[in-house]
TrEMBL record:
Residues 195-205 have a biased composition (Acidic residues). Residues 177-205 are annotated as: Disordered. This is C-type cytochrome. InterPro entries: CcoP_N (IPR032858), CcoP_N_sf (IPR038414), Cyt_c-like_dom (IPR009056), Cyt_c-like_dom_sf (IPR036909), Cyt_C_IC (IPR008168), Cytochrome_c_Oxidase_Subunit (IPR050597). The keyword Cell wall biogenesis/degradation does not apply. Residues 95-174 form the Cytochrome c domain. It holds the Pfam family Cytochrome_CBB3. It comes from the Bacteria. The chain crosses the membrane at residues 30-48.
Length: 205
């Protein structure tokens, strides 16, 4: 009962809504001044991080961190060459396929779709290929482009290892047959070669 009396005697604001009253408990002064300080700080934050200066935006710093992490990962595998054994081997390594997938999603989805189902570019998940006769041709198309520039060359924008890993990822999409608005393009080719046995050394160059 005494607690209820204390609530009744507590200071309240001078407004009520449908009989509901509000206790007059103002925010602490330090909290208010902290809020005011963030308002004054925000223009300087905006000018530093969002003024267009290279290397300062959240996207730029993320890209720098991602590139550094990728370089550390590449130190584990050395310099890959887009040969048949290497491509076949890496398309069966889930951790590295995910790296190739991240390269694909960062650069290729506007033409080939988020899952490789095809948009402007052809469907990469069926059994039909326009510019590919062997698995090595995937890396050649990535490096040099195709279709008179419809598929741009990426050799000057991607690390050679990224070319190999994204090519391995694209090769891994074959046979998923994701529904697409684009019909079959090109012709059928032989299946990809089988990976080398585990006890044999996987060539990387």
């Amino acid at each position: 009962m005494s607690q209820l009396t204390d609530y009744d005697n507590a200071p309240k604001t001078d407004h009520a809504y449908d009989g509901i009253e509000e206790f007059d408990n103002p925010l602490p002064g330090w909290w208010k001044w902290l809020f005011v300080a963030t308002i004054f700080f925000s223009p300087f934050y905006y000018l530093y991080y969002h003024s267009g200066a290279s290397g300062r935006s959240v996207e730029d710093t993320y890209g720098i961190a991602l590139a550094e992490n990728t370089r550390l990962q590449f130190a584990e595998i050395g310099d890959l060459k887009p040969t048949e054994p290497t491509l076949v081997a890496y398309m069966h390594k889930p951790n590295w396929v995910r790296v190739g997938q991240s390269v694909f999603k960062a650069n290729c989805i506007s033409c080939h779709g988020r899952e490789g189902e095809g948009q402007v570019g052809p469907n990469l998940t069926d059994e039909y290929f326009k510019n590919v006769k062997s698995i090595e041709d995937i890396a050649k198309v990535v490096n040099n482009g195709a279709g008179g520039g419809a598929m741009p060359k990426w050799s000057d924008r991607l690390h050679p290892n990224e070319v190999v890993l994204v090519s391995a990822y694209v090769a891994s999409l074959r046979g998923q047959n994701i529904e697409s608005s684009r019909g079959p393009e090109g012709g059928k080719i032989p299946p990809w070669p089988e990976p080398i046995e585990e006890d044999e050394e996987t060539p990387e160059e």
